[in-house]
Amino acid sequence: MHSSRRPSGGKMSSSRSNSSNAAMRHKLRHVVNNILINLTQPRPSRALYAIISILSVGTLFLLFSALGAHVPSPNHANLGHDVAEMADGSHFYSGKKSSSANDKSNHRMAIVIPYLPPSDGASPTFPPYFDLFAMSAAGSASHIDYLIFHCFIPPELLPDVGTLPSNVKLIDLNTDISSKENQCGLAKLFTRVTDQRQALETPLDKLIPTLSSQIIYYPYILVEYKPAFGHIFADYLTSYSHWGYSDIDVVFGDMTRWIDTDEWNDYDIVTYGFGDQDKLYLRGQFTFHKNDPKVINQLWRHCKYLSEMDIRYSEKNASERKFESAEGCYSQAVIMRKDIKVKWAVKAFSDVGEGSPVYTQGMYLSLGSAP
User: Fold this and answer.
1) Cβ atoms within 10 Å of 51's Cβ, excluding its own
2) Which string of b and e fits 145-165 if b means at least 16 CB within 10 Å?
3) How far is residue 274 from each of residues 266, 278, 279, measured CA to CA in Å?
4) 330 Cβ partners below 8 Å, 6+ apart?
5) Considering only CA atoms, which of 133, 79, 371, 369 is closest in space to residue 249?
6) Residue among 157, 181, 183 at smallest CA distance from 170
7) pLDDT for the residue 106
């Protein structure tokens, strides 16, 4: 009896197990079929959206945890030290001034601009946009002076010094020669470029009046001497760490926000342009130098139209005299040197033509402290 019951009991247990497995397979099949049906439907159900979303988030969480993923913070170092520090915002939260401000505190620049009114005498004063120039220059008063050397402007037509910004300095170079005529003192200063000539082909007593006539009737030739301004105007630059050249028709604003700390400290020459740096010439609109009388301020001597000016202005060469581009010769002289550091920076110093909205509609300037 016992033997007959045990097989019977065993069959009943096996039957129940098979029945349970069949039910589970049926339910699993039902779930899979529902998923497949949902996947093949044009519009998946909200339940499926929820399932896929949960699986996706879980997968990403496991992936990032396993790989130890790290998203780096933005890096603005390639924008320059000052801009990087502003962009990263480190000094906004520290409650302290940035170190770059301290690095600039020992520097001061003189931008040298000679000016002569048109030779026709129709308007013997500064151009009508001079007030705009002076107003914009005021923004750089903390670190930059603008030295305007001028001739042939009557005192009554000069701007009121009391209304000019303190960093815009007018220096009158009229020189009385006789009771009949005036001579611009710029001519005598410019002949300093011949100070290493052993024997002048054109003596100074002839060279100075010849050069004075040239700059009176062709004032645009003043730009030829820009590379040598550090030497020509050395007596006016002794208290400055840097000197530069530019033009009176430039709107500057706060240049200290443009000039990076490395440009003050690490480079001998810095020039600003608007994307044509591949040409590697030093722009006449704005180039500045370390005030180094022995090396940097003498780089121009490679240009013979300056260093041998007495030959250029000799009577035998009068018919061959031509306008020289300071940007061309001086740039070549600088590139040839291997012992100096030069920076060509893309900082949007560009010309404004008559078709520009700035020219036709004017521009708005405001004075205030940097944010």
Assistant:
1) 14
2) bbbbbbbbbeeeeebeeeebb
3) 22, 11, 12
4) 226, 227, 282, 299, 300, 302, 303
5) 133
6) 157
7) 86
- Name the one residue in this structure whose structure tokens are 């090396």: 295
Give the pLDDT band (50/70/90) at residue 258.
confident
CA distances from 319 to 117, 189, 315 (A): 26, 25, 8
Nearest to 280 by CA among 337, 223, 222, 228: 337
> What sign results for the dihedral spanned by CA atoms 279, 284, 287, 289?
positive
Q: What are phi and psi of 308, to 5 degrees?
A: -120, 45
Q: Is the pLDDT of residue 175 over 80?
A: no
What SS3 state is found at 305?
helix
Alpha carbons 109 and 250: distance in angstroms, whole number: 17
Average pLDDT over residues 128-156: 92
So what's the pLDDT on residue 297? Answer: 97
Q: Inform me whether the pLDDT recorded for 303 exceeds 70.
A: yes
Contacts 24+ apart (CB under 8 A), 291-296: 291/230, 291/237, 291/240, 291/241, 291/242, 291/243, 292/268, 293/230, 293/231, 293/234, 295/268, 295/339, 295/340, 296/230, 296/268, 296/269, 296/340
Sheet-wide strand order for 286-290: 168-172, 144-150, 109-115, 242-246, 286-290, 269-273, 342-346
Find the DSSP H helices in the chain: 2-40, 46-67, 81-88, 90-94, 99-104, 130-137, 185-190, 204-217, 229-232, 261-265, 304-307, 309-312, 326-335, 357-361
pTM of the model: 0.67
346 contacts 277 by C-beta, under 8 angstroms: yes
Q: What is the pLDDT of residues 259-274, one digit of tens each?
A: 999 999 999 999 988 7
What would the DSSP string read from start to end of 159-184? Answer: PPGGGS-TTEEEEE-EEE-SSS-EEE
Reported confidence tier of residue 243, pLDDT bands at 50, 70, 90: very high
Quick: pLDDT tens for 326-371: 778 899 999 999 999 999 988 865 555 666 655 555 555 555 554 4
